[in-house]
Amino acid sequence: MGLRRYILRRLGLMIIVIWGLITITFIVSHVIPVDPVALWAGEKARMQELDIIRKRYHLDEPLWRQYIYFFQDLLQGNLGISPVTNRPVLQDLTYFFPATFELALLSLIMVMALGILFGVFSALKRGSITDHLLRIYSLTGTSMPIFWLGVMLQFVLYFSLDWLPLGGRIDAQWTRITGFVLLDTLIAGNLHGFLDAFKHMIMPAFCLSFSSMGLVVRITRSSMLEVLGADYIRTAKSKGLPKNVVIYKHVLKNALIPPLTALAWTFGNLLQGAMITETVFSWPGIGNYAASAIYTLDFPAVMGFTILAGISVVVVNLITDLLYLFIDPRIRMLEAA
Amino acid sequence: MKRIRRNVASKYKLWRARIKPLAKEIRLSLYIVRRSPVTLIGLMIVAIFLFITAFGYIIAPYDPIAQNLDKRFQPPSYEYIFGTDELGRDIFSRVLCGARYSIQTGIVVLAVAVPFGAVLGATAGYLGGKYDEIIMRVTDVFLAFPGLILAMLISAALGPSLQNTMFALAVVWWPLYTRLVRGQALSVRESAYVEAAKSMGASHLNIILHHILPNCISPVIVSVTMDLGMIIIWASGLSFLGFGAQPPLPEWGRMITEGRIYIFKAWWLTAFPGIAILFVVLAFNLVGDGIRDILDPRLRRVVEVRGK
Questions:
Q1: What distance in Å separates the CA atoms of residue A45 and residue A51, rounded to the nearest whole number?
Q2: Which of A63, A204, A213, B165 is surrounded by the most beta carbons within 10 Å?
Q3: Distance from CA of B13 to the nearest CA of A (A)
């Protein structure tokens, strides 16, 4: 009974958070000292043209009324029309979304799989050279300015060694079916295109996962060490259980909960990193789209992106919390109480 | 006369009794720091960095913004250790002078965000009930925001400049401290000394300022050290994206953006400012790690037992 109430409460809170997020975005983008209209219309625009744009975006009306218009549109699933590209924002976002999703998914898999693997390994081989190297990596990872890493990777891997392409998603011909380039080239049986797309993805994915992976290694390592030192592990060992059984059945099961909670954090981090990484590698995703929209003060586009990003972060947070509840009975008891 | 002397002596004794545990604490802290060479390295880099921050403009061999078009794109050499950029400016001097902007941003952001967040957090945790509910829901909204996006949005709306970046980062950072301090305050609230202060008729404000906040401080210190590095990365990231510091200011992130155009012609324009960022942030992280070890009571006990 407590559990259901907990979930309901979390859902209610989620709606409040999303509303707050949208409102803050609205306020920031509407109470600004610069007039975006002149920027949107171009330098040669006449006064009448400016007035038309102002009318179209309700910029001549009081703020509270703009807010109501905005919410009315939003509830109908309409994010407005970008004054810069002259296309509906939702259409733009859905067009650019697959590129980001593909990149982020690959990075997320790398972060979680390799990060946890390295962390476990580091803890089991505590004090070895590999352990020291991994610890140095995990500290460097969180201290790395990834835009710089991206530029330097381009210099070494593209310019000096010529192993990987400079940027973009694919050089070969491909037909857009789902928008996921790896999937589309596979469906079309285009092996050359698939390899080409994969090559394009290596540098950005590495760059994007670099810092998050460092943190996952670190969390996994310390959580492993804590569990390895626990009394119940000593009991299991002294019972004479084989080492592998102790590690798989007793240590890993308990030690992997903290890294799992890092999942939500990683997701948010990847989303933000996407803006920087995509700018560096001219990756045609929503991060790149949002970054350029912010330059041109294209507020419908910026708000669309913020709302999308915010909602996905909130939802992922909720899912991880529930997952956490599901895996660890101790927390379930605590929340229910 | 005698009485005065006795008075002084007793005062000294009192002072010694008060200082003794503190001195012991400090000795133990130094002992823990000494045992970890990594923390020492971090401290050393931070010290060098602070020195450069203070005296960068004085020790720089060249003027960081003076152009010398005869000496464009000089590779690193004895004369120009880090080479020169597209306008013939000495990169080494620019990196030295740029240290100031990074640390300045970090300190200003934290000086605004930490007190603000901490007071809100302490209030929420101590008062509880509807105050807690209201403060934490607002905090949740800010925490749900992808921070970089909010910072970019604010920087873009206010116009690109270093001050606006600082403001934007402060807006992004305070909720972290609200959450941190609230968690601490929840447990401090139940302690006997808060009970005692309450029963003596201390006001809420008094209790929050003198009892709750000082006892929430240790995780905040660790967090501040680590966040200093984080803010330096974020500020340079914003500069890289075109917000933040504007040319010709020798800000590190900005230097990377400007150098990036010539990366295939002159890698040193981009490489050195980036290495500077990496080292400084790494140093703050190492020190933060070390401080956490010092403040962690579990580890402390172990060391204390072993030290004897």
A1: 10
A2: B165
A3: 44
Q: Cβ A143–B256 below 8 Å, yes or no? A: no
Kind and range of the H or E element at A36? helix A36-41
Residue A126: inside a domain? yes
pLDDT in tens, A77-126: 777 788 777 888 888 888 998 899 889 889 998 898 999 999 999 988 88
Give SS3 for A44. coil
- How far is Cα B266 from Cα B84, in angstroms, rounded to an integer? 9
| CB contacts, 8 Å: A334 with chain B | none
Which one, of A28, A48, A31, A49, lies nearest residue A40 by Cα? A49
String of DSSP letters for A103-139: HHHHHHHIIIIIHHHHHHHHHHTTTSHHHHHHHHHHH
Residue entry with tokens 């808060």: B194
Q: What was the pLDDT predicted at A38?
A: 67
- Is A32 inside any structural domain? no
Structure tokens at A254: 């308990």
- Please give the DSSP secondary-structure letter assigned to residue A46: -
A136 assigned to some structural domain: yes
- Asked if pLDDT for residue A1 goes beyond 80, the answer is no
Three-state helix/strand/coil letters over A291-333: HHHHHCCCHHHHHHHHHHHHHHHHHHHHHHHHHHHHHCHHHHH
- Euclidean distance between CA atoms B177 and B160, whole angstroms: 26
- CATH code of residue A140: 1.10.3720.10
pLDDT of amino acid B278: 94
Q: Residue A81's beta-bridge partner residues?
A: A88
Q: Do A17 and B270 touch (CB under 8 A)?
A: no
Residue A142 has pLDDT above 90, yes or no: no
The encoded tokens of residue B222 equal 């660790």
Element (H, E) at B94: helix B91-127
Span B128-165, pLDDT tens digits: 889 998 998 899 888 878 788 888 888 888 888 889 99
For B221, phi then psi, to 5°, come to: -65, -45
Q: Which residues of A touch B158 (CB under 8 A)?
A: 32-33
Separation in Å, CA B94 to CA B58, B61, B98, B254, B265: 12, 10, 6, 11, 19
- Report chain A's terminal Cα–Cα distance, integer Å: 10
Answer yes or no: do B153 and A29 touch at CB < 8 A: yes
Which pLDDT band, with edges at 50, 70 and 90, does B113 fall under? very high
Distance in angstroms (rounded) separating the CA atoms of residues A41 and A47: 10
Chain A CB contacts of B156 below 8 Å: 294-295, 297, 302
CB contact under 8 A, A151 and B141: no
The answer to whether A265 faces chain B, any CB pair under 8 Å, is no
The DSSP result for B112-181, as a single string, is HHHHHHHHHHHHHHHH-HHHHHHHHHHHHHHHHS-HHHHHHHHHHHH-S-HHHHHHHHHHHHHHHHHHHH
∠ Cα B78 B82 B85 (to 5°): 115
Q: Does residue A57 sit within a domain? A: no
Would you say the C-alpha torsion B273, B279, B284, B289 has a positive or negative sign? positive
CA distances from A325 to A4, A202, A203 (A): 12, 35, 36
The domain in which residue A263 lies consists of 90-298
Among the partner-chain residues B141, B148, B260, the one whose CB lies closest to the CB of A275 is B148
- What total of structural domains would you count in chain A? 1
B252 CA to chain A: closest CA distance, Å?
A: 10
Least CA distance to A264: which residue of chain B?
A: B144
DSSP assignments along A166-203, one per residue: SSSS-SS----SSS-HHHHHHHTT-HHHHHHHHHHHHH
